[in-house]
Amino acid sequence: MPQDTRPAVVIGVDIGTTSTKAVAYDTEGRQLGSHSVGYPLDDPQPGYAEQDPQLILDAVLKSISMVVAELVEPVAGLSFSSAMHSLIGLDADGNPLTPSVTWADSRSTRQAERLRAVPSGLALHRRTGTPIHPMSPLPKLLWFAEQEPKLFERVAHWVGIKDWVLLRLCEALVVDHSIASATGLMDIHRLEWDSEALTIAGITEEQLPQLVGTTAVLPGLTAQAAAVTGLPQRTPVVVGAGDGPLANLGLGAVHPGMVACSIGTSGAMRVMVEQPSVDPLGGVFCYALTEDRWAVGGAINNGGIVLRWAGEALAPDLGEHSEEELVALAARAPAGSGGLIMLPYLHSERAPHWSALPRGAYVGLTHGHRREHLIRAALEGVCQQLALVLTSVRAAGNEVREIRAGGGFARSGLWRQMLSDVLGLPVSFPAAHDGSSFGAALLGMQALGLIPSIDVAADLVRIEETVHPDPAAAATYAALLPLFAELYDALVPTFTSMRRLAPGLPAEPEPPAGPPM
User: Fold this and answer.
1) Carbohydrate kinase FGGY C-terminal domain: which residues (predicted)?
2) At CA 55, angle to CA 51 and CA 58, rounded to 5?
């Protein structure tokens, strides 16, 4: 029988906040099939952002089965990516006792602020790599212990959404070092659960999944999962990693000094390093990709969501799906928006301040400003916030040699140029790839011995365009950035007073959609 010489195929499965996407890739980086299944993000009370784990499991199974049905090539394995910071309480049989509490959930704000205020808070951040913030499972566990003590006592295991999906697919209760490095519960220097963090959370090591490397391979699927997906039961399953570090891999930003920037609904800036580290002020996170690749950076809550808000609040006459018209309006205003600055904290903020306190603000309004200035200032604010994150990345001692960017914003020529101008650096835009799913597939290929190393990602990812900063615009933004940075500190007392007054004020207007993804 002739030997099959076709490149091997791995399906990267990316469990996101609003959908799961399964994408099949071969070892030459070609996409052979793709399918996405969405699900809701529930907000039953203010500050809540949770999901039904069963709906996500169903989406994983369906997305895989649809891709398998498209393929003529045999599947060498599955490899997983997942949104980070989720938390689910399970009973002794592995059944969920709680919803999946997502990163966007802010109910544990008080617990996070209490932890940040004690002297050991920064030490905990530097040891675990995870900022003390309500996105993190550590403050969430404190919230459950204090607000739902009876439920807290019933929980046999605390897991993330990917851990639970793998438990159902493979009957293995494991968590990879990448997802664990985003819990606030693992010592990133020792790759072990942190005893002080567990004591603070009020849980034991036995209540957490077994720690494994991101390239760990589970031996196969359950009979039921195999039947639903259409895959052989012996199909290898690579545990995989978190979506942030895998997005770096999917953009080919795998070597030290290579920064990956993404702006979807939210945004992030991450650089790969070879040893875990956090800057002295705690402005960045540090999450694992492999044992010798770590992503140092920061995520922001307010990316493309700001443009959507601008359309709804400032230009409702343009109707829905008016992104192109909004960007065209913004292009009519000059760089710097005529001295108008917007703090884009519509959904509070994460990096580099890691606080749920701030609100959005326009500063510098005059009678001459029009809506094109307000829209442009909003877009500039997103880019300026990313510039602050990049400053913190450098403060952690990291060299920045190259920036690669992706995400929905990259479709806009104005945003591409604006990002380069605000950062004051060239920015390269790879040809379209689903970053996290491609990263998961590449990690799976390394784990299965199909490629020599994930370093091949830098060669597989084709650069579509490199945008260079316009000198005049870059000078304008360089002058404005210190003012943008100062405004956060200047307004903290105001933000604090506003939160204190909030219970006695008329209710805030309901947003048209859930928290940012």
Assistant:
1) 260-447
2) 150
Phi, psi (deg, nearest 5) at residue 30: -80, 140
pLDDT at 13: 98
Say what the pLDDT of residue 2 is.
46
Report the pLDDT averaged over residues 250-267. Answer: 89
Query: What letters, b where the CB count within 10 A reaches 16 and e where it falls short, cover 120-157?
Result: ebbebbbbbbbbbbbbbbbbbbbbbbeeeeeebeebeb
Query: Quick check: 239 pLDDT over 80?
Result: yes
> Which tens digits make up the pLDDT trace of 451-463?
999 988 888 888 9
Query: What is the DSSP code (8-state) at residue 369?
Result: -
Average pLDDT over residues 72-98: 97
Q: Which two tokens stand for residue 493?
A: 């007392």
Backbone angles phi, psi at 3, to 5 degrees: -75, 140
109-117 helix and 120-128 helix, angle to the nearest 10 degrees: 110
Locate 503 and state its tokens: 């219970």
Q: At what angle do helices 243-250 and 435-447 cross, to 10 degrees?
A: 90
Give dist(CA 294, CA 297) in Å, integer: 10
Return the number of other C-beta atoms located less than 10 Å from residue 33's C-beta. Answer: 18
* CA proximity to 398, closest of 271, 213, 286, 309: 271
The pTM is what? Answer: 0.92
Bridge partners of residue 126, in order along the sequence: none
What pLDDT was estimated at residue 511?
A: 61
Question: How far is C-alpha 481 from the chain's CA centre?
Answer: 24
Alpha-carbon separation of residue 186 from 48, 128, 158, 189 (angstroms): 25, 5, 14, 9
Distances (CA, A) of 451 to 272, 444, 448: 20, 9, 8
Return the closest-CA partner of residue 79 out of 162, 138, 189, 200. 162
Cβ 467 vs Cβ 420: under 8 Å: yes
pLDDT of residue 512: 55
CB atoms within 10 A of CB 82: 31
**Domains in the chain, CATH or no CATH each:** 9-254 (3.30.420.40)
Tracing tokens 């040893």 back to the chain, one arrives at 275
Residue 217 CB-density burial (10 A; 0-12 exposed, 13-18 middle, 19+ buried): middle
